[in-house]
Write a structure and sequence with these properties.
heterotrimer, B: about 280 residues, MetI-like fold, C: alpha/beta, four-stranded antiparallel β-sheet, 11 helices, globular
Chain lengths: ~325, ~280, ~350
């Protein structure tokens, strides 16, 4: 049984706007285990990207971390001072951002760029190490001498992955790293990421909304809606026996080559973080809503071995 | 009414714009209200005791020729502002016309306009202005002054507006307009122009600032309307009559102070409008 | 058969570089592309491809937003470039579009009503303001929106899904013969995609509107369309009836594409497969031969010499690959033969 690597407790990230406070991440409890691949799924406004930005302490005004802890190997990531944060980034917690291809410095060669960040963390690489790093992500060592504009989108993304693993971090946060890439390149990159992750025994938190990709890559999934974590489980549990109505509708809406002409969307409009409904955030759109869902907030609790869901229907059943 | 209220609300978010507009409003009011309280005749030479330091009788003192400087400010400030707005307005008007046409239509028209603009921009404007001003020196009036300055103030707006139009030209809503069968002029007027309003306002302020500065420059060299008590002319007289050496500090410092206020106000308005024009601000939740 | 819109051997080349320092660079975005859209029988055809395949360029050419470097785009037999004002007006009335970004299509200065009112006034769809309003209300309701929740708002006050549906309502107002939908759901949340695709499908079924659906997502293409055209670097790799092409792909590129689609079923799919050896280097542009040859596991010497023609591997499908050279050849313009269906639209 793997040990917990990151324990997030009651994480709250709020945004202060003219029209009120938006709870982008709302009392989230989540545990990530060492060496696992965890997928965080949600639509726009669900808070999934805000969550990882909070872990990296990259939340900008008018957003702020309103509370909570994120314990990783004894340290609370949310309580570190700026210098400690700088040291933690890349060395212990690395990120592969969305559109990572645009985060490479266009005037530096690839090798220089990788070496620069490693030097800043006190681990200047030799040529051998750079070659090793590039090969690990499936690139030829000659790429170190090239400039970013000479590489294709897929190659640039691999460079970003190389940078992310350069200091052997324990946790890798990947924010939709392949959304801008072609399906074929996506497959290759995700396969590479997986073998790297296994080699390093690192934990990968993959944020995204492509359920197909999650099914292929992740071992466990967390589903977020409106800033709250509504369900957590193994990838088999989520796909074969989802317990939360939102998850169920989400799974049903995934298009596949088995269902021609069937269109099952989720009715209603996405919720507004500034004007959230009372009680359960999903109840206005939920086909199984009970009257008290409008006033009572459900808690995340275990509904099957290793599977958690936040829905009053289960509290009813257990009562 | 709704738009006015949300505008005032917005000023709270954008203090630069609010303060800037406030400062300019105060200066304009100073001229307007002041007119009602003083006798404009006192702004002419030989109207009162000369060389008086500021006192209760002459709040800003008097100059060598016997002008009451408070009256000069009250009369002259609006004149200077008027020249600025006139020249800035003409310059911007021309800039809008040429910039939109050049930016949206492209092709040969664009090449011609752009070439002309770029060429004229390399001409040192002050030299040209001095040449023009010294030629028409005898009959120069406020309006002529404005026109002279305007003749060289349209190039920069043309260039920047053209650049803005280029960024908007390929936007999806322009394609939508084409799908609706709109022709180029309709698209420019109905789709592009409204979106550039904040930017055009900022350009206007920039053009006005430049125009006022150019005017003062010309006037301080003595090339302005000799009989009008504008800011620049006052400074010219102060220089000519060695006010600095003679210790008549009120003669040169007060116009300068007013000008500083004017420019700071214009700058804040431009900065505030810049913020308004920034699309990220407009999309905020 | 009367033809509504036709692309005839269309070629589009983009030039970049040149000038004082750069080497002039030619990018052939689309080459030898032909397609015929019939006026009488509504069709739902997908043009699928990855980025760089030329699919967006094809859409722009068909909408008249770009001019072909070679070949022609014809509306009812007349070249788009030669249409007079009345012809252009008719063209715009009958051929409409839905775009990818549900935010950018709105002019931020106006309320969303603007996008609905403009076509009514420009095409004279209503004789009075009240009638126009009625048309708008009906169109919104047809796409599943409530007028009181959407009209009078600014674009940023509505969600992406709502905005996209309004653009569909707009297209519906004009009752066009053909709607070209360029990635209509790729920027919309997953849960709303099905709803929006269903709206499009309904418009096709109930109003007999033809659709040209441009996408990179084969799964949604499978859900909505009857025919599929796969583009690779500006040329047609494979085309035909969607069920056949997806379930039994012939062209090596199509095969790789379908193999790479992440299957939403844990335990099935590619993740367990070993990583492919061939790393994708920058695509060296092959001037003459098959564009896919550099990556193709079945490549033969002749693949690099001349572009393979379309081979009709079945009554309703064709693939441009020498592997099938025993099948009868299909000239480019005849591509439409495998794209026509012999009956009513798919239910």
């Amino acid at each position: 049984m793997a040990s917990p690597l990151l324990e997030i407790r009651d994480l709250r990230v709020h945004f202060e706007t003219r029209r009120g406070v938006a709870r982008a991440v709302n009392e989230v409890d989540l545990t990530l285990y060492s060496g696992e691949r965890f997928g965080l799924v949600g639509e726009s406004g669900s808070g999934k990207t805000t969550l990882i930005l909070a872990l990296l302490r990259m939340i900008k005004k008018p957003g702020f971390i309103a509370g909570g802890k994120a314990l990783m190997e004894g340290t609370d990531l949310l309580a570190l001072d700026p210098e400690q944060v700088r040291q933690t980034r890349l060395a212990r917690v690395a990120m592969i951002p969305q559109g990572a291809m645009n985060s490479l410095n266009p005037v530096l060669r690839i090798g220089e760029q990788l070496a620069l960040t490693m030097r800043e963390h006190g681990q200047p690489p030799g040529e051998g190490r750079l070659a090793e790093l590039l090969q690990a992500v499936g690139l030829k060592p000659e790429v170190a001498r090239r400039y970013p504009h000479e590489l294709s989108g897929g190659m640039k993304q691999r460079v970003c992955i190389a940078q992310a693993i350069s200091l052997k971090p324990r946790l890798i946060l990947a924010d939709e790293p392949t959304s801008a890439l072609d399906v074929v390149v996506q497959r290759q990159i995700m396969q590479t990421l997986r073998s790297l992750q296994e080699g390093l025994d690192a934990t990968v938190l993959l944020v995204g909304h492509d359920m197909g990709l999650m099914a292929q890559f992740a071992q466990r999934l967390g589903i977020m809606y409106g800033g709250k974590l509504v369900e957590v489980g193994t990838v088999e549990q989520i796909f074969r026996s989802p317990q939360h109505p939102y998850t169920q509708l989400l799974i049903a809406s995934i298009p596949s080559f088995e269902k021609k002409g069937e269109f099952k969307g989720i009715p209603g409009v996405g919720l507004s973080l500034l004007n959230p409904p009372g009680g359960c955030l999903f109840h206005p759109r939920c086909p199984k809503a009970l009257p008290r869902c409008a006033s009572q907030e459900p808690q995340l609790r275990e509904v099957a071995p290793q599977q958690l869901a936040s829905c009053l229907l289960h509290e009813e059943a257990q009562a | 009414m709704e738009r006015l209220r949300s505008f005032l609300y917005y000023l709270r978010e954008n203090p630069k714009l609010g303060i800037g507009l406030g400062m300019i409003a105060v200066l304009i009011l100073f001229g307007v209200v002041g007119r009602l309280l003083v006798d404009p005749g006192l702004a002419q030479p030989l109207s009162t005791t000369p060389r008086q330091a500021p006192s209760w009788e002459h709040l800003f003192g008097t100059d060598d020729a016997g002008r009451d400087l408070l009256t000069v400010m009250v009369v002259g400030m609006p004149l200077t502002i008027r020249i600025g707005f006139l020249a800035g307005g003409v310059g911007l008007g021309l800039g809008i016309l040429l910039g939109f046409v050049s930016g949206y239509l492209g092709g040969k028209i664009d090449t011609v306009i752009r070439g002309t603009v770029d060429t004229l921009l390399t001409v040192p404007s002050l030299v040209v202005l001095i040449s023009i001003a010294s030629t028409v020196r005898e009959e120069i009036s406020i309006e002529l002054m404005a026109l002279v300055v305007a003749s060289l103030s349209w190039m920069w707006p043309t260039r920047t507006i053209r650049a803005q139009v280029l960024t908007l030209r390929e936007r999806a809503y322009v394609q939508m307009a084409k799908l609706n069968g709109m022709n180029s002029f309709e698209i420019i007027w109905k789709e592009l122009f409204p979106n550039l309003l904040p930017y055009l306002a900022a350009s206007f302020v920039g053009a006005v600032s430049w125009a006022i500065l150019a005017t003062i420059g010309l006037e301080a060299l003595g090339l302005g309307p000799q009989n009008e008590p504008t800011m620049g002319m006052t400074i010219y007289w102060a220089i000519t009559f060695s006010a600095l050496i003679r210790g008549m500090w009120w003669w040169w410092s007060i116009p300068i102070a007013f000008l500083v206020l004017l420019f700071v106000g214009l700058f804040l308005v431009a900065a505030g409008l810049d913020e308004l024009a920034n699309p990220k601000q407009r999309r905020a939740v | 058969m009367s033809v509504l819109l036709e692309a005839r051997q269309v070629r589009k080349v983009f030039h970049s570089g040149g000038g004082m320092w750069g080497v002039p660079h030619e990018n052939v975005a689309v080459d030898g592309f032909s397609l015929r859209l019939d006026d009488e029988v509504p069709a739902f055809i997908t043009i699928a491809g990855e980025s760089g395949s030329g699919k967006t360029t094809v859409a722009r050419l068909l909408l008249g937003f770009a001019e072909p470097s070679g070949g022609q785009v014809l509306y009812r037999g007349r070249d788009l470039r030669e249409l007079d004002r009345e012809g252009q007006r008719q063209f715009r009335h009958e051929v409409q579009a839905i775009f990818q970004d549900p935010f950018e299509v709105y002019n931020p200065f106006y309320k969303v009503d603007h996008i609905l009112e403009t076509p009514i006034s420009r095409f004279g769809l209503a004789s009075s303001a009240a009638q126009g309003r009625q048309l708008i209300v009906e169109a919104l309701e047809t796409v599943g929106l409530r007028p009181e929740e959407t009209l009078g708002r600014y674009p940023h006050q509505l969600s992406g899904g709502q905005r996209q549906r309004i653009t569909i309502a707009r297209a519906l107002l004009l009752k066009p013969r053909l709607i070209i939908a360029d990635e209509p759901v790729s920027m919309v949340d997953a849960s709303l995609r099905a709803t929006i695709l269903e709206s499009l499908h309904r418009l096709h079924r109930e109003f007999g509107i033809s659709f040209l659906y441009i996408t990179h997502d084969l799964t949604t293409a499978y859900q909505v369309s009857q025919r599929l055209v796969i583009l690779y670097h500006g040329t047609v790799a494979e085309a035909g009836e969607v069920e056949q092409v997806i379930k039994n792909p012939k062209h090596p590129y199509t095969q790789e594409l379908i193999r790479s689609i992440p299957v939403p079923d844990p335990g099935q799919g590619w993740i367990e497969e070993p990583v492919a050896e061939k790393e994708e280097t920058e695509e060296s542009l092959v001037a003459a031969g098959c564009r896919y040859a550099p990556r193709c596991p079945h490549a033969q010497p002749r693949c690099l010499q001349a572009l393979p023609p379309l081979y009709r591997t079945g009554p309703e499908r064709a693939a441009a690959c020498y592997l099938y050279d025993s099948a009868p050849q299909l000239a480019g313009e005849e591509l439409s033969q495998v794209l026509e269906q012999g009956g009513a639209p798919h239910p």
